Amino acid sequence: MLDGFRFGFRVVTELGRLLLGRVQGDSGVVPRRLDEVDATWLSAVLGVRFPGASVNAVRTLSEDSGTTSRRRVAVEYAPGRRPDGAPASVFVKLRPPGLAEELFGRIFDLGPTEVAFYQNARPSLEVRAPELYAARLDRSGAYALVLEDLHGTGAVFKTIADEVTLSEAESVVDALARLHASFWGSTGFPWLRRAGDLRNAAVERFVCRRAHRPTLDRFADLLPQSVGRGASVIHTKRPALERYWAAGPLTMIHGDSHVGNAYFVGREAGFFDWQVTQWHQGVRDLAYFLVLSVDIELRRLHERELFERYCERLIEGGVRRSDIDSDWLFERYRSFSLYAYMGASVTATMSELQPEALARIGLRRAATAVDDLDALSILRRLPRAR
Fold first, then answer.
1. Any domain includes 289
2. pLDDT, tens digit, 9 for 90 and up, residues 326-344
3. DSSP codes, 353-386
4. Cα dihedral sign, 302-307-308-309
């Protein structure tokens, strides 16, 4: 009941801000629609990063939307006005076009978090991520990111429907370990959410609880019996689970580390879509990737091996060996299969987030991992919410 009240209050608050911003109109700083990303605006923002740049024309290469509006744009410069390093194409992200999608993003601070990440954390990142050319955020919450167009780097992209090889899984594991090792135990970036932070916890609990019954009704064929019968305990013990997750060393995580948010350049993996980066347990990223992105049989064969590889890479990256109790950490890893299941459940029941065919793949993998790893037994040991 209290979670529902907090969720309702947050929705009303953010909806009011959203509508006020739309009534007040264009700030002149941040484009509200992709068709406003024109030669004049790009000249202004690219000219800050690349003094002297002047854009004559732009051409759309591709476009889509989800929790953001996204467009790849080819850039044509005026003669003699393309400074060294100025890109031939860029990737632009704005707020989503739909009211519901924008409200969802505002409730979870997706746009402001990603803007802050690129402005503050990206320069010190030790893993691949798109280069930032320009970032804008106004008081209404509207935002714009102009990023490196990864298609020009030879990057390879995948969805969770594509095969992830063992070699590719190793590349992602190595990249996650580098990311986590470099920020292990840090207390910087106060704008990042922290595990145990109550700001969005009630909202997340409410959204996940609302997805529980529709998941059982619509996708029972994807769920092992143990998960179909026992998943309700996830929601009754979610506050205790959050306290359990908040205990121990924290690091900066990607937060949405499935393969659809990764890319490969040669044997090296990188990540984009940093909208939910936060301070949390590093193995949350590891579990989220392996559970949702790797075929079930490949995960079963190599899961412990890939987990041990992650631990070894953390130590190589400077994490103290005393911080790496593999049994303790593997239990946390097992528990985060529950987080992957909750995320997959929400995605499967909110059709605007992902096509159902992809959502079904993720939900089946996550539910199977919860069963394989006996993650519900960890929950049953935790005390009920006070």
1. yes
2. 999 999 999 999 999 999 9
3. TS-HHHHHHHHHHHHHHHHHTTHHHHHHHSPPP-
4. positive
